[in-house]
Amino acid sequence: MPTLSYQLYCSRNFPEIEDTLAMLAQTGFTECEGYGGLYGDLARLKNALDGTSMKMTSGHFGLDMVENDTAKALEVVKTLGVSRVYVPHLMPADRPTDAAGWAAFGKRLAEAGKPFNDAGVIFGWHNHDFELADLGGADRPLDLIAQGGDDVMLELDLAWVEKGGQSAVDWIKKYAGKITSVHVKDIAPAGECTDEDGWADVGHGTLDWTAINKALKAANVTHYVAEHDNPSDHARFAARSLATMKTF
């Protein structure tokens, strides 16, 4: 059975980290994934994790922090025991506009990851839908990011791949050797869950989890992270999603 984790960004609107981690532990999660907004008070975060026996096995770290405050990022990694670091996003103004630009970005990402690789940490990229844009050739931005270096891994966000007009199953097969984690996220049927930006609890949306899970197993992906970008009730999302993920 894969390791099941929870992206704490889902709970950013439920502000007390101690309460969130207690809820997750009570629900049955034992692992979680961090994000940049949590690392400012590292002592509090560590105490909250220790108090619930939750492990932060992966984390999202902004590109600016990775490149320009590497020592701080490595301190977070060491203090919390993070074993997977993923850069999660680029603002629209910072995104390359052609294949050459994305290829250069892939190499830049590989260079940024070297200190983390040297520390024994998996390093890579977490996608949204903009990395699936058609550049007019065979490669899409996500291809060029993955090709940036042998040590650039992927945390494939399955729902964002589908939002980008692509097949999650096809991309799992395409980069089986590069995928070290996946975001397990679901998309609500058209017109539903509009108050939650059209996302759904895992197993309560439109993604074909039977086919996706088969592909993930064939690709030997063992780290699944539940995510919902805007749940109105994070405890409901956590409970229903974990119940679905346990069937995987």
TrEMBL record:
Where in the numbering of this chain does the Xylose isomerase-like TIM barrel domain appear?
25-232
Q: Which GO terms describe its molecular function?
A: isomerase activity
For this protein's source organism, the top of the classification is: Bacteria, Pseudomonadati, Pseudomonadota, Alphaproteobacteria, Rhodobacterales
Among InterPro entries, the record links this protein to: IolE/XylAMocC-like (IPR050312), Xyl_isomerase-like_sf (IPR036237), Xyl_isomerase-like_TIM-brl (IPR013022)
Coiled-coil residues? none
Q: Which UniProt keywords apply?
A: Isomerase
Q: What is this protein called?
A: Xylose isomerase-like TIM barrel
Fetch the Pfam families from UniProt.
AP_endonuc_2
Write down the superkingdom of origin. Answer: Bacteria
